[in-house]
Design goal:
eight-stranded mixed β-sheet, alpha+beta, about 650 residues, single chain
Length: about 650
C-alpha cells in the first residue's frame, strides 16, 4: 500500500473549512489534501470523516478510503449518532461484500443490526434490507431477495431518501431481469438511472446506479440502449468533475466498440481503463474489463494473452466462461471445452440471462463434440429465455445456435432460413464478426443443399471479413475450407507420410478416479506437452481424438524421435511428481489420400491399428516405418492380423528407455 506525502498546511487557512469548500466544488484532490490535514490535527467529526472517505475515492486514494469509513463508524458511535453509525457499518459491509470478504461483511451487517434492530422505518433500515437482499441473492434465495428489495424501495420512498430509493430500485430491477421479468426490471432501473444522470443523487450513488444500468444493457446485448446511457453518464461526469466512473463507462463503451469490429482500439481502451480502475478498487467493472480483453484476444487468435486476461477476471470474481471454453475448442480440446461450458451452465441456477450468455457457446461446443441431443436441449432453453426480450443481438445469437443444430440434424433448408434471418439481425446491430461467422456457417448449409455457387460466395465473403477484422483463427479455418474444396474438385492428392496415433491407456478409469476437474488439468498438460514435442519434430497434428492425437510426419526418423521424446517426457514427469498418463503410440509409413489438412486410406487405418496393439509406455512401428527410418533399435519383428486389412501387419517395438 502506498503512502501519501503528508500535505503541507497553508498559512492563514483552516484546513477543515478549506476541505469542506473544496468538496462542495468537487475539487477532489484538494479536498483530500485539506481534510487529511484536518484529520492529522484531530479535527474531524464522523461526518467529516465520511467526507474525507468520499474525497479519497474520487482522488484515486482507495487505499485509505475503507480505513477512513471504519473510523467514521467509530466516530459516529462515540458522538451518539446511532443511525449514522449503523449506516456507516452497512456501507463498510457492502464494500467488504464487493471485495468477496463475506464473513467480514456479515460481521459489519450484524453490528448495524445490533445498533438499530432488525425492524423499523428509518432510511438505515432500508439499507439493512438492501444488504440482506444482496446476500440472499448471492446465496440463491431469490424469493427472499425480491421481498427484501421491495421492502427497501418501500422504506426509501417513505423516508424520501433519494439515494436509498435509487439503490433499491436498481437492485430490485436487476433481480427481476434475472428472473425473467425483463421489461419490468428495466423500467425500475431506468427510473433510478434518470434520477442519477439528472443530478438528483450523490456522486457515488449516481455512478453505481448508471453503471449497473449500462451493465444490464450489455448483458442483454441491447447495445443501442447501452450507448444511450453511456453518453448520458459521461455528460453527467463531465459536469460534476468525477474521474472514477468515466473509467467504468470506458469499459462499457469499449465493449460496444468491440462488437462493431474495432478490436485493436477496444483492447487499448480496455487496458487503459482497467489500469485506471485499479486505483479506485473498482473490482467488478475491472473484472468485466479483463474479461472483455480476454475475449478480444481470443477472437484475434492470441490464446496465451486471452488466458492471462481471463485469469485476471477470474481472480476478481468474474467467471472466465464462455470465453475460456471457446479457447479450448479453438485449440482442438473439445472434451475440455464441453466439460467447462457444461459446468458453467449448471452453476447458473436462477439467473436466466447469465445462462443465456453461456448457451450459444454450449450449443457450438456440443455440436463439435457430436452431442447433437445436448445441443438441441441447449438451443431450446435459449429460445425460451430470449422470447422474453428478443433484442436483435439476442435473436441473432439464438438463430445461429439453432442453425448449428439443424445443420447437424441434417435439416439444411431450416438452417439456411435461420442463418439468413440471423445475418439480417446482426447487420442491424452492426456486428461484422457475427455476420461473418453466420455467413461461414451458411456456406456449409448451402453446400449441404447443393447450392455450391451460393456456398462459395458466402465463404469468400466471410473470409474477406475475417481478414479485415484480424480474426486469425476464423480466417485460417475459412482458408482451409476453401483449400479442401479445391482439392475435392481436382480429385484426391496422394502423399507418402509417416502417421502417428497416440492414445492414453485407461483414460475412462483415470477420469473417474481423479474427478473431472483434476482430469481436465492433467489432460491439458498432456496435450500441451505432446503438441510441443510433435511441433519440434516437424509433425502436423491432423486432429485430436479426445484422449490422443493423429499426427503426420514427412520423415519417418523424425516421427520415431518425436514418439521417443513423448515417452521420455512422460517418464521424467512420472519420476518428478509420481504420476503421468500411460500413453501408447503407433507408427506406420504409407501413401494416403490427402484432402486439405486431412488424410484417409488404408495407410491411415493401419497406423491406427498398430497403435491399438501397443501397451501403455510402448511405441510400436510398422516394418515400413523402421525400414524408412534406418538404424533404429527395435525388438524382433512380429506380425498380427488387424481388422480391415487382408494381409498381416509386421511391426516391432521401438527401444527408447
Amino acid at each position: 500500500m502506498s503512502e501519501a506525502t503528508p500535505p503541507t498546511p497553508t498559512a492563514g487557512t483552516d484546513p477543515l473549512e478549506a476541505g469542506r469548500a473544496a468538496l462542495a466544488r468537487h475539487a477532489w484532490p484538494e479536498a483530500f489534501e485539506q481534510l487529511s490535514l484536518a484529520d492529522r490535527a484531530g479535527q474531524l467529526s464522523g461526518s467529516d470523516l465520511e467526507s474525507l472517505a468520499l474525497a479519497a475515492f474520487f482522488a484515486a486514494r482507495a487505499d485509505v478510503e475503507l480505513d477512513v469509513k471504519e473510523r467514521a463508524f467509530k466516530a459516529h458511535e462515540a458522538e451518539g449518532n446511532e443511525l449514522r453509525a449503523a449506516y456507516q457499518a452497512l456501507d463498510v459491509a457492502r464494500r467488504y461484500g464487493m471485495a468477496g470478504k463475506s464473513s467480514i461483511a456479515s460481521a459489519w451487517t450484524r453490528r448495524a443490526e445490533r445498533i438499530i434492530g432488525s425492524d423499523g422505518e428509518t432510511y438505515v433500515h432500508g439499507y439493512l434490507a438492501l444488504v440482506r437482499s444482496e446476500v440472499a441473492a448471492a446465496m440463491g434465495d431469490i424469493d427472499t431477495a425480491l421481498n427484501l428489495a421491495e421492502r427497501a424501495v418501500e422504506i426509501g420512498t417513505g423516508a424520501a431518501d433519494a439515494d436509498l430509493k435509487a439503490n433499491a430500485l436498481t437492485n430490485l430491477g436487476s433481480l427481476k431481469i434475472a428472473t425473467g421479468l425483463t421489461f419490468d426490471g428495466f423500467a425500475l432501473m431506468e427510473e433510478a438511472s434518470i434520477a442519477a444522470v439528472n443530478g438528483e443523487l450523490s456522486p457515488v450513488t449516481t455512478g453505481v446506479t448508471a453503471c449497473r444500468m449500462i451493465g444490464a444493457c450489455r448483458d442483454m446485448t441491447d447495445y443501442r440502449r447501452a450507448t444511450e446511457w453511456i453518453e448520458a453518464t459521461e455528460k453527467y461526469c463531465d459536469r460534476q468533475s468525477l474521474s472514477g466512473f468515466p473509467g467504468v463507462c470506458r469499459i462499457h463503451r469499449a465493449e460496444v466498440v468491440a462488437v462493431g469490429g474495432a478490436w485493436e482500439q477496444a483492447e487499448q481502451e480496455l487496458e487503459r481503463a482497467t489500469m485506471e480502475l485499479g486505483a479506485y478498487n473498482a473490482t467488478p467493472p475491472q473484472a468485466d474489463g479483463f474479461y472483455a480483453i480476454g475475449d478480444i484476444r481470443r477472437l484475434r487468435g492470441d490464446f496465451v494473452g486471452a488466458q492471462q486476461a481471463l485469469r485476471e477476471a477470474h481472480a476478481r470474481g468474474r467467471s472466465p466462461q464462455p470465453a475460456l471454453a471457446l479457447v479450448r475448442l479453438a485449440e482442438g480440446n473439445v472434451k475440455a471445452a464441453l466439460s467447462a461450458i457444461n459446468a458453467a451452465v449448471a452453476e447458473e441456477t436462477w439467473d436466466r440471462w447469465a445462462r443465456a450468455r453461456l448457451l450459444p457457446a454450449q450449443v457450438e461446443i456440443a455440436v463439435a463434440a457430436g452431442d447433437v441431443a445436448g445441443a438441441r436441449a441447449a438451443v431450446e432453453t435459449l429460445g425460451a429465455i430470449v422470447s422474453d426480450y428478443p433484442s436483435p443481438a439476442l435473436d441473432g445469437g439464438r438463430r445461429v445456435a439453432l442453425a448449428r443444430v439443424l445443420l447437424a440434424e441434417g435439416d439444411a433448408a431450416g438452417a439456411i432460413h435461420e442463418l439468413r434471418l440471423a445475418i439480417k439481425g446482426w447487420r442491424e446491430v452492426g456486428a461484422p464478426y457475427e455476420v461473418a461467422r453466420a455467413r461461414a456457417i451458411l456456406s456449409r448449409a448451402l453446400r449441404a443443399g447443393d447450392d455450391t455457387d451460393g456456398a462459395d460466395l458466402e465463404l469468400e465473403a466471410a473470409l474477406a471479413a475475417f481478414i479485415k477484422l484480424g480474426a486469425r483463427i476464423d480466417q485460417e479455418a475459412a482458408e482451409r475450407e476453401l483449400r479442401d474444396l479445391a482439392d475435392r474438385r481436382s480429385g484426391p492428392l496422394t502423399a507418402t507420410k509417416t502417421f502417428m496415433f497416440t492414445d492414453i491407456v485407461g483414460s475412462t478409469t483415470l477420469a473417474e478416479a481423479l474427478g473431472d476437474q483434476v482430469w481436465e488439468a492433467v489432460l491439458r498438460k498432456h496435450d500441451d506437452m505432446l503438441r510441443a514435442t510433435v511441433a519440434a519434430g516437424g509433425g502436423e497434428v491432423v486432429n485430436s481424438t479426445g484422449d490422443g492425437f493423429f499426427v503426420a510426419f514427412d520423415d519417418a526418423r523424425a516421427a520415431i524421435d518425436s514418439a521417443i521424446g513423448i515417452q521420455q517426457a512422460l517418464r521424467d514427469l512420472r519420476a518428478k511428481v509420481g504420476f503421468a498418463c500411460p500413453v501408447r503410440i503407433g507408427l506406420h509409413t504409407a501413401e494416403a489420400n490427402r484432402r486439405g489438412a486431412d488424410y484417409s486410406g488404408k495407410g491411415v487405418h493401419v497406423a491406427a491399428r498398430v497403435a491399438a496393439l501397443a501397451e501403455g509406455g510402448e511405441i510400436l512401428a510398422s516394418a515400413e516405418t523402421i525400414a524408412e527410418a534406418g538404424g533404429v533399435a527395435t525388438s524382433e519383428l512380429r506380425t498380427a492380423t488387424v481388422k480391415g486389412v487382408a494381409a498381416p501387419v509386421s511391426f516391432a517395438a521401438i527401444i527408447w528407455s
